[in-house]
């Protein structure tokens, strides 16, 4: 994704810096040599989405436990998932989600759910990319310093908090506005 940056003198530059963008990725494995992909070869690696307008609020609820949390009273479940917090890349690059945001509850768990793309038109999963997930914490130890632990493939999901994406049962209706015709 090419970026244009402008300075105070109204001089703008297109694709002349380290243009980075991050995209929710698919489960498609990278090439065997882990080479960056470009052009149409990028398509299988970037997740597709649809933007829909809904007549109600959507909320993510997190358990910080292995169980899927219940929806608040008056809310209905949409789907359950894993509690995603943020990702980082080389330098100060990265982005995050508010935990109440629907984007913080991902249906599938992948250690690093984003792919990094550069302005030169290439994308890859780089070793500097990190995914941050809300961890499970024992209720009896929640105010203690957590013990450091390294997990390997196969048991990663056992320590990731579960979440539920929910919607309020009753649509939110905007209040009706009436305008008076009072005389002055």
TrEMBL record:
It is found in: Secreted, Extracellular space, Extracellular matrix, Basement membrane. GO terms for molecular function: extracellular matrix structural constituent. Gene3D superfamilies: Collagen IV, non-collagenous. Residues 1-170 form the Collagen IV NC1 domain. Keywords: Basement membrane, Collagen, Disulfide bond, Extracellular matrix, Repeat, Secreted. One of its GO terms (cellular component) is collagen trimer. One of its GO terms (biological process) is embryo development ending in birth or egg hatching. Coiled coil: none annotated. Trimers of two alpha 1(IV) and one alpha 2(IV) chain. Type IV collagen forms a mesh-like network linked through intermolecular interactions between 7S domains and between NC1 domains. This is Collagen IV NC1 domain-containing protein. It comes from Wuchereria bancrofti.
